[in-house]
Design a protein that fits this description.
Length: 397
């Protein structure tokens, strides 16, 4: 059986895709459709012909999948149903129901739809992508890979919120975490880089992208993670607040008359680096600091402070830490964030070598000094490859 997998990550107004050769790990083609549902959609496809850019209306996900098929047909590579081992779909919320990937059938679609109450921003567009792709490729197995699966191993002490037991049970309130596919890939790859089996190492993974989360991985198993019921909890993010006293919400409801939707918008889309500094993009924040902007400087300090709090907490939970791995847009590219987030932790055996750390990292790089008790690394994430591998493993099992 061929080991090519089309990986689809379908968001509310976008579809990211990649055709992955699972054996080599190479992306044979990648692409992105944005502004779905708006008057003009923007489309980018990178294949053997180089990069193709188009602007045209893409009314919905069904139309988006049709555009992707056209792009492959016109610009390559060949995308034939009989050459695809599977189509892998990223799904954000799998609840307690999906501890691993699932072959999509009508029952799995229904479950993803039911779980949308826990991820109203993510599961519905994920499902639209699945439905459109199943329609376009009825004979290829479709596999849903859930962002939450890696964290289904969290012990009760880590996933239980200290609220009324019955309320929690009635409404499935607990920590589910997210970014699991990335945390799994990066923690496993970190073990490989240390020359060990994942079962032998404890790793703290810092996935710092627009969304950001930290995970404590003990012997290959996620034991604590910073995102919660939804991806809002934990680290400071591009537009999300991360941790906040929940009473802030009651207070704003009472004194500012804010509605639930306004509070949701405030914490998910107008907070984090955007709320503190005016930009959600770390590059802009650094530029603003260089120009003397005090708000931007404070925003960065809050950002580092939160990461450090999590590193300390996860160190305590793991007892022994072999490695700390930085990944995603900021983790891979932002040397200033890396060095400042771990500053002052030398007594814990954690140090970053300024020369090794300098610059953007396109490949796995150790950034701690030789002989450090804790190896600090940059490990570029590859969620698409992980999804493709899991999809192939499931359909060939
Ligand atoms: P997501 O997948 O969560 O949307 P990414 O992992 O792609 O996010 O990360 C995007 C973020 O990475 C950007 O918002 C930006 O802040 C940051 N980033 C990208 N390149 C750089 C860079 N060269 N220096 C600093 N930050 C960067």
């Amino acid at each position: 059986m061929s080991a090519h997998v089309l990986v689809i990550n379908s968001g509310s107004s976008s579809i990211k895709y990649q055709l992955v050769d699972v054996e080599s790990g190479d992306a044979m083609a990648t692409g992105l459709i944005e502004r779905i549902g708006q008057p003009t959609g923007s489309i980018r496809h990178e294949g053997p012909d180089g990069t193709t850019k188009l602007e045209q209306p893409v009314p919905d996900h069904e139309a988006g999948i049709a555009v992707i098929l056209d792009l492959f047909a016109t610009h390559g590579p060949r995308l034939a149903a009989d050459e695809l081992a599977a189509i892998g779909h990223r799904v954000v919320q799998g609840g307690s129901r999906f501890p691993g990937p699932a072959l999509v059938d009508d029952a799995v679609e229904a479950a993803i739809s039911e779980l949308a109450t826990l991820a109203p921003l993510h599961n519905p567009p994920n499902l639209s992508g699945i439905r459109a792709a199943r329609h376009a490729f009825p004979t290829v197995p479709h596999v849903a890979v859930f962002d939450t699966s890696f964290h289904t191993t969290l012990p009760p002490a880590a996933y239980t919120y200290a609220i009324d037991r019955q309320v929690a049970a009635d409404y499935a309130i607990r920590r589910y975490g997210a970014h699991g596919t990335s945390h799994l890939y990066v923690s496993r790859h970190t073990a490989e880089l240390l020359g060990k089996d994942p079962s032998e190492v404890n790793v703290i993974v810092l996935h710092l992208g627009n969304g950001a989360s930290a995970t404590a991985v003990r012997g290959g198993v996620s034991v604590e993670t910073s995102m919660g019921l939804t991806p809002l909890e934990g680290l400071v993010m591009g537009t999300r607040s991360g941790d906040i006293d929940p009473a802030v919400l009651f207070h704003l409801q009472r004194v500012a008359g804010m509605t639930t939707d306004e509070l949701d918008d405030l914490l998910n889309r107008r907070s984090g680096m955007l709320g503190l500094s005016g930009s959600s993009d770390m590059r802009d924040v650094h530029d603003a600091v260089a120009a003397g902007d005090e708000n931007a400087r404070t925003a960065l300090e809050v950002y580092y402070h939160r990461i450090k709090s999590y590193v300390g907490s996860y160190y305590a939970h793991l007892g022994h830490v072999d490695a700390i791995a930085f990944t995603a847009g900021i983790g891979e590219n932002d040397d200033i964030v890396r060095i400042n987030s771990l500053a002052g932790l030398e007594r814990l055996g954690i140090a970053v070598d300024p020369e090794r750390n300098a610059g953007r990292k396109k490949a796995d790089t150790v950034i701690s000094p030789d002989g450090s008790e804790v190896t600090v690394l940059v490990v570029p994430t590859n969620e698409e490859l992980e999804i493709a591998r899991q999809a192939v493993a499931l359909v060939t099992a």
